[in-house]
Design brief:
By secondary structure, the protein is an alpha+beta fold. The chain is built from eleven helices and eight strands. The protein has helices at 3-28, 32-35, 45-53, 72-83, 87-110, 114-117, 226-262, 274-302, 308-333, 344-355, 362-377, and strands at 142-143, 149-159, 166-171, 180-185, 191-193, 207-220, 264-265, 268-269. The strands form two sheets. Strands 1, 2, 3, 4, 5 and 6 form a six-stranded antiparallel sheet that branches. Strands 7-8 form a two-stranded antiparallel ribbon. It is globular. It starts with a helix and ends with a helix.
Length: 378
Amino acid sequence: MNAINVDSMAAERQAFADLARDISLKKLVEHREENDRYPFGPIFEDAIRDAGIVGFYGVNLPEEQGGVGMNAGMVSVILEKISEVDASLAGVIFSNAAALEIINAAMASTGDTGIYSEIKTLGTAPIAFPMYASPDEISPAMLSKDESRIFYATIRNCALGNIADYAVVPIRRKENQPYSYYLVDLKDKGVTISRPIVSLGLHGCPMVDITIDKVPSRVIGKSGEGKKYFSAMSDRMAVCAAAMSLGIMRGSFQDAMQYTSDRYQGGRQIIDWGQVRMMLANMAIEMKIAESCVAMACQQMDCCVCGWEKTAQAAAIHIGEMATRSCTDGVQLFGGNGYMKDYPQEKRMRDARHAQSLLGMVPLRKIQYISRIIEECE
């Protein structure tokens, strides 16, 4: 990669980082507590719409399809900055990017770009995607012989299913058979969407169960190749999951620094107490380690370094665990206020835990990680 390309990419990264920070400060900070009440309050429609207007839903969409044409590394820059303030909107962008990565992987495999033209809101509105579960766990569905219609299927915990127009979902005919990904129009009369599922965190990125009954569908890529597409998506989006956790960590640390500097106890600033400084030091150290891990994962992915996939997966798992520890300390540094919804630390602690489940449960992802290493050694 020559110097001109590196400088150009750095400039674009900074531009998107500035945009993400601007939207976060203007749309998320003031109403953060109110937005977190969803589904018992309104969802932040303005922020979701504005994310589309500035192009956040088209970052990893090919240029010839009207997108920015960048990879998941650029998406991670946006997610990190937004997660510093409110990770819920980052979850919305993550879901859309994951759906696009499935489509991109299928397009790269087959050369069929027709699937892009079928999504009327492509790049301007988010696409729903079940980003919290492994597709290996899906229940069998009923399909027409030519796979042009889904007679019956149930999709559990589909992110954005109640606010998006389209969804990318995994479908299989029988247990233990290969699955495929399908594009589904969520506005079809045969689609039934449940009430939002109340989750631990990321409340502004709602999950729902979707029932599909006699709905026309479009298989994405080759039939039965869903696992390959999921693997390609998961490796790239692991960098984004790591960036989200890093953003949550940084937001927690910054607020903890500000709070302990502003408050007094025993006649001196809280930050002057030795144990408080030790907790802040631990948070700062883990945040710096996380920054290095994300930077290395992005660099290896950009340069297609051999084994970059394992680096990305390891970064996502490790930083997710560090974020939960760091945010727990962030709550403690606020004292009793840390557990109050009036302050941001309580939400960050929940969001950090919830973000760990992106792309599947941590224990399952660890088993998959070591299985990959064992297979390579055989």
